[in-house]
Amino acid sequence: MNFLRVIGFSVVILLLFMGFSHILPQVEPDTSAPVEVSTDGLDMDGMIALGESLFSGKGTCTLCHNGMGRAPDTLVMDMSTTYPERLLDARYKGVSAGKEGAKAIEAYIFESMTDPSAFVVEGFGEKGSNDTISPMPTVNKAPIELTVVEMNAVTAFLQDLAGLTPTVPLPSADDAPVVEEPSSGEAAPLLTSGEAVVDEHGCAACHDLGGSGATLGPSLYGIGKRMSRAIVMESIIDPNAIIADGYDADFMPADFGEEMRGSELLLLTDYLLALPDAAPVNEDDGDEALATTGLEVVENFGCAGCHDLDGSEADIGPALNGIGKRMTADQVRVAILDPNAEITEGYEADMMPDYFGDDMAESEIELITDYLMNLPE
Ligand code: HEC
Ligand code: HEC
Ligand code: HEC
Questions:
Q1: Could you tell me which residue, 181 or 191, shows the higher pLDDT?
Q2: Closest-CA residue to 10 (of 185, 255, 175, 241)
Q3: Is the pLDDT of residue 269 over 80?
Q4: By three-state DSSP, how is residue 184 classified?
Q5: How many angstroms is it from 370 CA to the middle of ligand 2?
Q6: Rounded to 5 degrees, what are φ and ψ at 150?
Q7: Quick one: pLDDT at residue 8?
Q8: 122: closest CA among 72, 66, 77, 78?
Q9: Mutation test of ligand 1: which of 58, 65, 95 has the most ligand atoms closer than 8 Å to its C-beta?
Q10: 236 lines ligand 2 (CB under 6 A)
């Protein structure tokens, strides 16, 4: 059975390489580009309907809010009893803390989109954050970028679903028009760049792409050095075939293969393989400030993604607690600057990035070495 799957997959990849992508999911002509729709004069039923289509469409909410356990299953749970409890929860510090009623719930839902960490549902926080940091993207920012009217529409949809009368304001003539995706049934427009495929399928909601900083999935920077072309494609079409270390199965959506054309998958794969080794640091303010503490160096260079330094439980590399007892400062320095000079027993070469020597200032190398030498066991 497994053998047949492997054969079947190899055939698909072969066809892709041979340029037969047109016989895979049919490429339709671009007849249905997204259109701008004025929301002026929309009534509450219209808002609810718009919210419903945004929830599974542009908002990409159903990527995580579904029955797979990535996030609370919003469409199924009983929001009418759960949300009032959230507002009274001692951990909730947001705008509706201690309040009740439909207006307070409206504010809670809206705030969940613009400030997801205002309340983190127990068990869903970022690893190691003790449920203080939400992994949910801020949906009014790139890459999702819902407008206020759109977030009001989603809120109206969820209030209605909870059995409450929606309390959101209706849009006025001054509000920006909503960009409507072609409705299902019609062919989606053919995407012509890898970046557009990333945007369309919400990869940046979970992977740190385009500056999203998302951490639900592994960083894809430098993936061309870690994975072959065929494995990258397989990871996209059949994410459960190989599970990245430190992550759970059934987390990455498994239906991208059905939703993408062959040509789009090829563009996406090219785009990922061409990513630089590390995410550009501080894209906004050009000159990045030098780190001034060892901890900042750890954070800026992502050491804790692979090493357990503080209970992060990362295990791609050896735990660094108590390293000062095992190694001299000089050995630690070499391990950072030239990781393949000596491979830690039980680990493989070429796993730890070898560009820290180029990217770190001498002062940062000294700070990080000092910091590691003094880590408690
Ligand atoms: C990348 C995954 C992801 C996406 C995309 C996402 N969410 Fe979330 N969301 C989460 C997680 C995880 C939580 C639980 C942690 C928390 O409370 O912030 C959550 C929490 C929430 C909550 C609070 C739920 C509760 O039970 O109190 C609401 C409301 C919500 N999301 C709405 C949305 C909406 C609307 C969208 C789309 C516009 C969306 N989310 C997109 C992951 C996601
Ligand atoms: C809901 C969150 C989520 C979304 C959306 C998502 N991924 Fe992932 N992805 C993950 C997780 C978690 C893993 C690690 C587990 C695994 O290997 O399946 C992963 C693994 C991967 C890997 C393998 C990386 C490695 O180092 O092993 C690739 C490649 C990848 N994703 C590409 C994509 C692309 C391209 C998209 C958009 C089309 C996408 N992902 C959308 C969560 C997501
Ligand atoms: C992509 C994963 C990854 C990242 C990111 C990473 N490392 Fe490593 N590191 C490894 C692996 C795997 C090893 C073991 C193999 C080897 O020795 O090269 C290792 C080995 C080490 C060692 C030697 C440990 C020992 O017990 O022998 C030190 C010290 C170290 N890393 C420090 C760092 C620091 C500091 C950073 C951040 C600036 C960092 N690493 C970032 C994967 C990583």
A1: 191
A2: 241
A3: yes
A4: strand
A5: 35
A6: -65, -40
A7: 44
A8: 72
A9: 65
A10: yes
CB 219 within 8 A of CB 295: no
- Computed over every residue of the chain, the mean pLDDT equals 82
Indicate left, alpha or beta for 131 from its phi (over 0: left) and psi (-120 to 50: alpha). Answer: left
Q: Burial-class residue 228 by CB neighbours within 10 Å (0-12, 13-18, 19+).
A: exposed
Integer angstrom CA distances of residue 267 from 160, 196, 345: 40, 9, 39
Q: Which residue has the higher pLDDT, 102 or 286?
A: 102
CATH 1.10.760.10 range(s) for the chain read 294-373
d(CA 127, CA 132): 10
> In terms of CATH architecture, what is 2-28+191-273?
Orthogonal Bundle (1.10)
- Rounded to an integer, what is the distance from CA 315 to the centroid of its chain? 21
Q: Does the domain at residues 294-373 carry the CATH identifier 1.10.760.10?
A: yes
Three-class SS of 18-59: CCCHHHCCCCCCCCCCCEEECCCCCCHHHHHHHHHHHHHCCC
DSSP string for 286-311: SSPPPP-SHHHHHHHTTGGGTS-SSS
CB 65 within 8 A of CB 74: yes
To which residue do tokens 């339709």 refer? Answer: 28
Q: What is the pLDDT of residues 38-52, one digit of tens each?
A: 777 789 999 999 999
Contact between residue 232 and residue 238 where contact means Cβ atoms under 8 Å apart: no
Residue 169 CA from chain centroid, whole number: 30
pLDDT band for position 180 (cuts 50, 70, 90) = low
Which residue's C-alpha comes closest to atom 37 of ligand 3? 303
Q: Is 339 in the pocket of ligand 3 (CB under 6 A)?
A: yes
Q: Is residue 18 scored above 50 in pLDDT?
A: no
Atom 8 (ligand 2): residue with closest C-alpha? 252
Closest CA to 281 of 296, 260, 261, 267: 296
How large is the C-alpha radius of gyration of the chain? 24
**pLDDT (average), residues 332-341:** 91
